[in-house]
Amino acid sequence: MAVIEINELTKTYHGTQALNGVSLRVERGEIFGIAGPNGAGKTTIVECVSGLRRPDGGTVRVLGLNPQNNRRALLQRIGAQLQEAALPDGIKVGEALRMYASFYDNPADWRAVMDEWGLTGRKGTRFASLSGGWKQRLFIALALVGDPEVVLLDELTTGLDPDARRTTWVLIRAMRDRGVTVVLVTHFMDEAEALCDRIAIVSGGRVIAEGSPRELITEARAASLEDAYFALTGRN
Ligand code: ADP
């Protein structure tokens, strides 16, 4: 069953066409990657999914709801990773989790989430004192504390060192294995290939390819073989 259905989405910002007819389906329980270069439109898609942006055209349904009309109901059922600026430097790990849990009608037990993500030993550590990897781990825990069905992660590993990136991948897989549907935005193709069940590659506000990592690699190989053939033979 599709948890997210996007049809023919369009969005223009002051003359810049950010989305030019994007259609996608995200199935329940998968890690779905939205990959592509900077400026492709990835964040705009995710913002339309979470109800932060109003599309100019097309439709979005998340868990059967229109994010624009049902934002409050939807926010109870989806988790979104925060940007760093969203937490005050002085807040402690335990306080942040307790506070975010209080935003939800039916949250997870924040202490259990803290424990599960290995944060109990840092319960009293202030946000500003955490390393990049631990901040990301906290953001993941905060995205899960509402016990969401769908989690949206936008460039979660940008700026992390390779070890912290790999640890984050393990955590994302663990999320999926618990039945959460994960939408992962990344401009790292290796990350999308390593983690995602299916990937949509977005460029210039359009989905230019979609499929499992294996399908995309096979397609890309076929395309580059064709290019090589045309280059060699001069035929097109
Ligand atoms: P991505 O996440 O793939 O980097 P975005 O969705 O952020 O892409 O941006 C898509 C396009 O829309 C880019 O050309 C970007 O410059 C433009 N854009 C995004 N947000 C705004 C905004 N608030 N105002 C004007 N242009 C924007």
Relevant terms:
Rossmann fold; 236 residues; alpha/beta; 26% strand; 8 helices
Task: Give your account of this protein's structure.
The chain is α/β, with parallel strands linked by helices and 236 residues long. Helices cover 36% and strands 26% of the residues. It has a six-stranded mixed sheet, sandwiched between helices. A hairpin with a 2-residue loop joins strand 1 and strand 2. Helix 5 runs parallel beside helix 6 (162-177). The longest helix has 21 residues, at 213-233. The protein is globular, with a radius of gyration of 19 Å. Adenosine-5'-diphosphate is lined by residues 13-14, 16, 18, 36, 38-44. Its main location: membrane. This is ABC-2 type transport system ATP-binding protein. It is found in: Cell membrane.
The largest sheet is:
6 strands, mixed
What letter string, H or E per element, gives the SSE order? EEEHEHEHHHEHEHEEH
- The count of helical stretches stands at 8
State the CATH superfamily name of the largest domain.
P-loop containing nucleotide triphosphate hydrolases
Helix content: 25-40%
DSSP strand content: 25-35%
Strand element count: 9
CATH topology of the largest domain: Rossmann fold
Q: What is the total domain count?
A: 2
What is the mean predicted local confidence, pLDDT?
90
Uncertain segments: none
Can you tell me the overall shape?
A: globular
Oligomer type: single chain
CATH architecture heading of the largest domain: 3-Layer(aba) Sandwich
Strand order of the largest sheet: 5-6-7-3-8-9
Radius of gyration, CA atoms, in whole angstroms: 19 Å
Keywords: Antibiotic resistance, ATP-binding, Cell membrane, Membrane, Nucleotide-binding, Translocase, Transport
Pfam families: ABC_tran (PF00005)
Subcellular location: Cell membrane
GO molecular function: ATP binding; ATP hydrolysis activity
